[in-house]
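At this stage, I put together a protein sequence along with its fold in token form, as given directly below:
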Amino acid sequence: MKETNIDSMKYRKSTHLAGIDVETIVNEKGSCVLTIKEAYYDKGVDVSGNKSDGYFIEFVEDIKPMMVNSINRKTINAVVKEAKKCTSAESRFLPNWIGMQIELSFDETVKMMGKTTGGIRVKPTQFIKAKQGLTDAQFDKALVSITNGTFTSEKLKEDFILTDEQLGKL
């Protein structure tokens, strides 16, 4: 049966989650929140026709696995560190990622090998809820500290003048 009223990327061949997949999910559902079922490092994985070594996560939801780049690993580490009240070293231990919910978004500005290609970004969902009452500049600064792995609740409270009530929304 012919399909004419569809996205031209719908039937492309891909083995792992890509930015276009996340963009489609967000357009259809409003957000892309997934639960990590497994996190691991593997070598020689076929990622859409290319053999790749890297970190991967699989989800509870029925969706392709995702290769996790260094920026997204740092964001997941920050989320795990705060959510589980653990050390930085513990947050980097992949079994601690299991069960964590993450929100994915498509970022058109992501570069790969020097070219702007767009890609997946992990959003620190737990922290976005604290935006109420912050200026955009304060919130942007908080997101940078989360991504850089320098985030703690105490640091947010101190640097971004959050109340205990706002912290409770994290």
Remarks:
- The longest strand covers residues 32-47.
- The chain has a mean pLDDT of 81.
- The CA atoms of residues 134 and 142 lie 10 Å apart.
